[in-house]
Design goal:
5-stranded antiparallel beta sheet, 17% strand, alpha+beta, disordered N terminus, 4 domains, 451 residues
């Protein structure tokens, strides 16, 4: 394997984790074995020296002499001697009562009657000899202890715990480092998803996480470029529609003016010419209306990339103004209008000019398709949201009528989405019904029932 491939392998998250685990194990071994050696060395050169062992044996002999004197023990009171050994804090204490050439060994587990050891064997071990007066005679007592075994056990346990804690701490530090990287990456993504596309991602390492951050950053840059391109296209499209609308409406207005003059003087025209003038004027009006709807449609859809200025308004006052204005216009054109105004006070957040376009489109459809013989009903009520409905009877159209392309209704749907609401419409038998639904901020506790 080449050095380059090895280097790339250890740059991966798996390679980094493996490296950290190996380093943690090595550090744990150094701490464990090194600490054990150091503590064992200290015990060997401080606690297990001949002088220290002799001092501990002397202290035990003094304690044993006091115990024998207080309890008037004889040299063969082995049970009492075993009790003394069992009550000592030090572990590994052995004593031997020397009687002539023999020494009878006493330990915490017991002393058999025939258990004896040669005196010369005691001299070869770590026994220390003391003359202790018993009740029956003065005996030489050999004393030894192995309390360092307990210390060695503590050292072993401590070294194992230290090694484990070292490994755990290194792994926790690495885990904390990776967690901070992931949290930083998540915070960057939250800022970007919140709309701050100009916020750069932090990619500080050449591993999978860093590569992911680089890819997301590249995607962010791509989105920025496409957004700019779309905005430029929308602007160009809006400019084109505005120019086309201007170029079409100007000559069309002149054409309509000429044809209206012809219609005014139709008494001087032949019958066929009158029919043609009337039909042409209707088509010109239709073209004017279509170009107006087309212009409004593109204007609204182009506004999706623009700021919507939402402000708080009193819903009762706003509807009273809007519906009152349109009601008067419709009545002046021969329509019967009935209104059921909102009776409950509530507050809206709304862009009024945009909402007025929705009402404009609805009223425009009423002029075209509502039957003047039946009333147009405006109503409003509130539950969890505000409902504004318009209901009318559909007028019977002539055979030469052009079918609606529903551009105005689609425009209403788009505008209501911008206003964080919704728009639904449809035919119910011979009637047409349109409904605007808007979220409300505040309302009274008593709700008005749906009409």
């Amino acid at each position: 394997m080449t050095d380059g491939k090895l280097k790339n392998r250890f740059r991966t998250l798996r390679g980094q984790m493996l490296t950290v685990v190996l380093l943690a194990a090595l550090a744990g071994a150094v701490i464990g074995f090194g600490g054990r050696w150091l503590m064992n060395y200290t015990i060997d050169h401080w606690y297990v020296t001949p002088e220290a062992a002799a001092n501990r044996a002397a202290a035990l002999a003094e304690d044993l002499e006091s115990y024998v004197a207080e309890n008037q023990l004889t040299s063969d009171d082995y049970d009492a001697l075993r009790a003394w050994i069992g009550g000592m804090r030090e572990s590994g204490i052995n004593i031997a009562i020397i009687d002539g050439d023999y020494a009878y060994e006493v330990d915490w587990w017991g002393t058999e009657d025939n258990a004896s050891v040669r005196l010369d064997s005691l001299n070869e071990t770590r026994y220390h000899f003391f003359d202790i007066p018993f009740a029956d005679k003065v005996c030489t007592v050999a004393i030894t202890e192995h309390s360092e075994a307990h210390l060695y056990n503590i050292v072993t346990s401590t070294s194992v715990v230290a090694a484990a804690l070292t490994v755990l701490m290194i792994l926790l530090v690495y885990n904390g480092y990776m967690t901070r990287r992931i949290q930083t990456f998540s915070e960057d993504l939250n800022k970007i998803s919140g709309g701050d596309l100009e916020y750069p991602l932090h990619a500080t390492r050449d591993d999978e996480l860093g590569e992911l951050a680089q890819n997301v950053d590249a995607m962010r840059n791509t989105i920025i470029q496409r957004t700019h391109a779309e905005q430029s296209a929308l602007k160009a499209n809006s400019d084109l529609i505005t120019a086309l609308s201007h170029d079409i409406r100007n000559p069309l207005t002149g054409l309509i003016g000429y044809m209206e003059l012809l219609e005014m003087g139709q008494d001087q025209l032949p019958e066929d010419a009158r029919t043609y003038v009337h039909a042409s004027l209707d088509k010109a009006y239709r073209i004017r209306d279509l170009t107006g709807e087309l212009f409004r449609y593109f204007l609204v859809f182009g506004k999706e990339a623009q700021d919507v200025k939402m402000e708080e308004y009193d819903a009762q006052f706003l509807l009273f103004q809007l519906l009152g204005e349109y009601t008067n216009e419709l009545r002046s054109q021969g329509f019967t209008v009935e209104t059921d105004q909102l009776k409950e006070p509530c507050t809206l957040r709304i862009d009024v000019p945009l909402f007025k376009r929705v009402v404009d489109n609805i009223v425009s459809n009423l002029y075209k398709y509502a039957d003047p013989a039946f009333p147009i009903v405006f109503s409003g009520w509130a539950d969890d949201v505000l409902h504004i409905t318009v209901t009318n009877r559909i007028r019977e159209l002539g055979s030469d009528a052009v079918e609606s392309n529903k551009i105005g209704l689609r425009t209403c749907v788009s505008i209501m989405k911008l206003l964080e609401g919704s728009f639904v419409s449809g035919e119910e038998g011979e009637n047409f019904r349109a409904e605007c639904i808007l979220p409300i901020l505040k309302k009274s506790e008593k709700l008005i029932d749906k009409p």
